[in-house]
Amino acid sequence: MSEPESPQGERGAKRAGRSAPAAAGRSEERAQREPAARPAVPRLTLVGIFGGLFCGYLGLAAVIPVLPGFVRDELGGGNLAVGVVITATAVTALLVRPLAGGLADRHGHRPVMQLGALVVAVGGLLYFLPLGLAGLVLVRLLLGIGEASLFTAGAVWTASIAPHDRRGQLIGLYGVSMWGGISAGTFAGALLERVDYTAVWAFSVAAPLVGLALISSVPAPAGAGGGGGGGLLLRPAVVPGTALALAAIGYAGLAAFVVLHLDARGNSSGVAVLTCFSAVYAGTRLVIGHLPDKLGPRRVATWSAAGEAVGLLVIAVAPNLPIAMLGGLVMGVGFSLLYPSLALMVLDRTEKAKQGAAIGAYTSFWELGLIVGGPVTGGVAAGFGYPAVFVLGAACAAAALAVANRTRQPAPPLAAGMAES
């Protein structure tokens, strides 16, 4: 027989009973106020993906400074032939990116990225063969297939494993790996040309094979099993892709004519503007690449397009090299975050099973902008002078701003549901 409970004990029990729900409520409030632990970024996986992309572009870019001389001196081609050989990869990349993304949706990202690296290596091997000018163009077309597969599969793979609040940042860093490979590959090709052409060809084979090994070291993710496909005009990619293509015209004008523009004004160091642009382009993604995730992709995309427009206008009116370099810096900051911001818009507007095809279609608009921008800016330069090229680029960037600003974003529940990895 137990002892009767004292009045104090009863009151204490009642107080405890009443306070328990209150304490639980306070705990829930604290839990809601405290941020959830951020998902870990799979760093070793990113090393394999980013490293594979970097090495693939090492091989692709190593031949760029070499091919013009090779076409003229070894194959007897003229300037038109040089232009066709250099730009042939962009044609097939434009067409193949959506298909490569669709294959990644259906069969997984790693095998498509591996295939891209392997095709790039095979293309490098074909440089050794005496195929003539027509054969060289076919090799370059093949390399466009490899480049499109390598980049597109890796981009969607990166987005699929990134924490939701860091997708834009990691997509931006993925792009830095590409530009790093292009810069280092171009430098390596120029050095190896001093040995002979075969040294460049050998490097263009070895580098993507190292990339293939890095990609293969990453465990294969499960394929999404989606339908994929849809071509260049896949609906979620059209509006952001149009903004990207418009912005690419400004970049095409900068790359083609800034040196000639400053030469005409008595300064032979115009390449410094490109150097400033490239450096700040990479640095911006490293330092503030999280802004599309934090502030929203549409807001950052409009700011980025505005920065590109302002930078191009500064270059157009620059009376000397320091002012032109300032324009390059401003343009680089803006242009750097435009691609990842617009890519986030595409991802947020696309169901997960088709995101590879959508990113492939979106990125194809970059090639489309360059293909259109090359002859258009050339015609403007011939008819109206070099400053008009940069004014045209600024107008296209302003149009990109308007397009990005009018892009509708999905409701938050839909975006969150689609972006789950």
Could you characterize what this model shows?
The structure is a single chain. The chain has helices at residues 7-33, 43-62, 67-73, 79-107, 109-126, 132-161, 167-192, 197-216, 235-264, 271-288, 291-295, 297-317, 321-336, 338-348, 355-384, 386-405, 412-418. The protein has 421 residues and is mainly α. The protein has two domains: 41-217, MFS general substrate transporter like domains (Growth Hormone, Chain: A); 229-421, MFS general substrate transporter like domains (Growth Hormone, Chain: A), CATH 1.20.1250.20. The longest helix has 30 residues, at 132-161. It is globular.
Quickly describe the structure.
The chain contains 17 helices and no strands. It has helices spanning 7-33, 43-62, 67-73, 79-107, 109-126, 132-161, 167-192, 197-216, 235-264, 271-288, 291-295, 297-317, 321-336, 338-348, 355-384, 386-405, 412-418.
